[in-house]
Amino acid sequence: MATLAKKAAAEAVDELVPMLTRLQLTAIRDQLDTLLDQAARSELNLREALAMLCAAEVGRKNERRIQMGLSIAKFPFVRTLEGFEYDAQPSIDSKQIRELATSRWVANGDSVLLLGPPGVGKTHLAVALGREAIVRGYSTLFVPATNLVTQLARAHVDGRLEEKLIHFSKPKLLVVDELGYLPFEPNAAHLFFQLVSRRYERGSMLVTSNRSVAEWGGVFGDPVVATAILDRLMHHSHVITIRGDSYRLRSKRRAGLANQASAKSDAASSS
Ligand code: ADP
Ligand code: MG
């Protein structure tokens, strides 16, 4: 019995690499000698060695999945929560951000509103939280608000609105960035409302805006529809209002540039 198994194994060894390829165990295949060496040196038993090989494969597959998710999400830049300096933005509760980083809000279909003036890190946090959602397996799409509305309006004209609404409803998390920077066109409010209704209690939205919620009526040019949009977004929501200075200006000021600039303008105005 033992010799039969030994004989079969000896024959299978020649086929090991093709078999790993066929099973798509490419991480094990590519690092086979190193992994087997490690297992031998650490005197792992068979079960432990098999677990180590599986862990290598799962690790690689996870990495690939995350890379794929990040490229599908179309983030405008790479930003992480590790790269966010809480000291620079005291109005942000780091505990609340850490809780959001668990992505439980995405699992629950809640919304997040990130509000505050330009440069305080809204897009940074939006991208970083989107990234955390992808790591935890939630499909994510990032879209600037004006771009979103332009796409919906164009699709509406072309009779393809339904198709576009489906496209933007599919991801578990939709990040809509910079709502309110530019005024929307007249039927934008209605189109945006349709999308928010479609996603309501199905998928999460993260919206960043430089306008307070009270100003959204003006942003949408239609207070009634703006209220209906807010009603849905705010139902299960986490609102983070960031107060304070622009991060860019702050770092310039640190370098003494802003002081020089203001000294110059003071000199210019007094002359
Ligand atoms: P907003 O979207 O609020 O206008 P951004 O998120 O685009 O601001 O931030 C502007 C720049 O400053 C980005 O490069 C961002 O990464 C950086 N930044 C802003 N706040 C912080 C912070 N607290 N820690 C680290 N980087 C920050
Ligand atoms: Mg921004």
From TrEMBL:
GO molecular function terms listed in the Swiss-Prot or TrEMBL record: ATP binding
Database matches in InterPro entries: AAA+_ATPase (IPR003593), DNAC/IstB-like (IPR028350), IstB (IPR047661), IstB_ATP-bd (IPR002611), P-loop_NTPase (IPR027417)
Keyword terms: ATP-binding, Nucleotide-binding
Pfam entry (one): IstB_IS21
Single GO biological process annotation from the record: DNA replication
Keyword Methyltransferase: no
Transmembrane annotation, as ranges: none
CDD domains per record: AAA (cd00009)
Residues annotated as domain AAA+ ATPase: 108-241
Signal peptide (residue range): none
NCBIfam families found in the cross-reference section: IS21_help_AAA
Family: Belongs to the IS21/IS1162 putative ATP-binding protein family.
Protein name (Swiss-Prot/TrEMBL): IS21-like element helper ATPase IstB
